[in-house]
Design goal:
The protein is elongated, with a radius of gyration of 24 Å. Strands 7, 8, 9, 10, 11, 12, 13, 14, 15, 16 and 17 form an eleven-stranded mixed β-sheet that branches. Helix 4 packs parallel to helix 5 and helix 13 packs antiparallel against helix 14. Strand 14 and strand 15 form a beta hairpin. Helices cover about 35% and strands about 25% of the residues. By secondary structure, the protein is of the alpha/beta class. The structure holds nicotinamide-adenine-dinucleotide, L-homoserine and sodium ion (NA). It catalyses: L-homoserine + NAD(+) = L-aspartate 4-semialdehyde + NADH + H(+). Pfam families: ACT (PF01842), Homoserine_dh (PF00742), NAD_binding_3 (PF03447). One of its GO terms (molecular function) is homoserine dehydrogenase activity.
Length: about 425
Amino acid sequence: MKPVKVGVCGLGTVGSGTVNVLIRNAEEIARRTGRPIIVEQIGARRDNPDCDTTGIDVTRDIFDVANNPEIDVVVELIGGYDVARELVMTAIENGKHVVTANKALIAVHGNDIFEAAKAKGVIVAFESAVAGGIPVIKGIREGLAANKINWLAGIINGTGNYIMTQMRDYGRDFADVLAEAQALGYAEADPTFDVEGIDAAHKLTILGSVAFGIPLQFDKAYTEGISRITPLDIEQADELGYVIKHLGIARRSKEGVELRVHPTLIPKDRLIANVHGVLNAVMVQGDAVGPTMYYGPGAGAEPTASSVIADIVDVARGMNTDYSDRVPPLGFTQDNLDQNAPILSMDDVSTAYYVRLQAVDRPGVLARVATILSDKGISIEAIIQKEDKESEMVPIIFMTHQCQELQMNEAIREIESLVDICGEVVRIRVEDLDS
Ligand SMILES: NC(=O)c1ccc[n+]([C@@H]2O[C@H](COP(=O)([O-])OP(=O)(O)OC[C@H]3O[C@@H](n4cnc5c(N)ncnc54)[C@H](O)[C@@H]3O)[C@@H](O)[C@H]2O)c1
Ligand SMILES: N[C@@H](CCO)C(=O)O
Ligand code: NA
C-alpha cells in the first residue's frame, strides 16, 4: 500500500519527540496501519540537537509543508494562536489532514477549523492537546459513546501538578520548581498559561465539548490559577484529610453547563488525589458506566508524541473513507451539537468551601463570622480554630456545606469588612468526586 506522508511543523519538544518515535517505531506502527508512515518534510526555524533529521527534507518555512502537494498529513506542533491557525487553515484548504497538539488553537478556533475541515472532507485530530499521552479524547468520544456524561474532573496540567507536588512533598520554592518544569519541556512557551490555569481551561473546554456535545466556548470557562496557594493551606488541608489539586471540572445539569478551573480540596482517599508530579488524570462519570478514570503522563516529548502518532495512525486508517463515516471531531455530528446549552457563570455554581481567615483573638469574633455565613444561608460543616501563642491573631477555618458561589462571595465581603478580621479571606472550593 502507498505510504502515508507526514509533514511535521515545529521541531521543539513535541516535534522532535514525534519525529524520533515515528522513526524508531516505524515497523511496529506499519504493522498496525498496514502501510508505512513517512516523515516527508519538516518545517523548523532551526535544527534541534535532540532530533536526527538525516535524509528528511527540512524547510525553514512551515507554509512550504502546508503547500507541499506530496504531503497527506500536516502535524502542527508550533503552538500559539495566530500563525498556527493560518497554517492549519492553509493545510485544510489544500485538502490535507491535520494533527495538532495545540489546545489553545482548538479551544479558541476549533469551531471554525472543524467547519472548514468538514467542507473539505479532511480529518482534524487533537488527542495530544488534552492530557498529553493519555488517550482521553478517544476514551470519551469513542469508548463512552453509549453514555450521557454527567460530569468530568481532571488534573490536566502537568506543569502545575508537578509544581504543587514538589511544593507539598519537599517544601520547594514555586519559582525553582517552575524553572525545572520548563527545563523538562513540560511548560507552555508562556508558563503563566500553566500557572494561571489558562492551559487547563483550554483543555477543559475541549473535554466539555467532547463530553456534552456542545460547541467550544473557551471564553465562558472560569479560570483560577495556583499561584496564590500557600504552604499554610496545603498543610491545613492535609490535617483536615484533603489534598489540594488544580482541577478542571465540567458538569451538566438542567440549569446548564459548568466549565471551571480552580484549586480544589479533594478527600485524600480518592484515586485522583494521589495523582502526583507531571502525571494527569481525568475522571469521567457516565450514566451507564459510572465513574471512570484515565491516568498517565500529561506532558513531555515522547508521551505527547505517543498521542500525536496515534492520531496519525487514525488518519492513515480513515483518510480513504467518507467524511460521514468517520468519528466527528467532537464525537457528536456537527449539526447535532447543542448550540443552546447555557454555560453557567461562576456566581451560579454551587460547591462546598474551605474558608480561612485571620482574626484578632477576641471573644465574639467567631460568632460574628458564623452569623454572616448563616444569614447568607451557608451552613457550616466544621470550624477549626488554631491556637497561636506567639500572636494575637488566630487562624480560623470554616468547612461549609454546598452553597451558591454568589452567596459565598457576599459573605466573604462582609467578613472582610469586620474590624477584627485581618487581610483577605482565603476561599478554596471543595469537591467530593464520589459518584
Ligand atoms: N511540551 C509538552 O509536553 C506538550 C504536551 C502537549 C501539547 N503540547 C503542545 O504542543 C505544541 C508544541 O509545544 P512544545 O512544548 O513542543 O513547544 P516548543 O517551544 O518546544 O516547540 C515549538 C517549536 O516550534 C517552533 N516554531 C514556532 N513558530 C514557528 C514558525 N512560525 N515557524 C517554524 N517554527 C516555529 C519553535 O521554534 C519551537 O522549536 C504547543 O501547542 C503545546 O501546547 C506540548
Ligand atoms: N504545558 C502543558 C503541556 C501538556 O499539555 C502541561 O504542563 O500540562
Ligand atoms: Na490525550
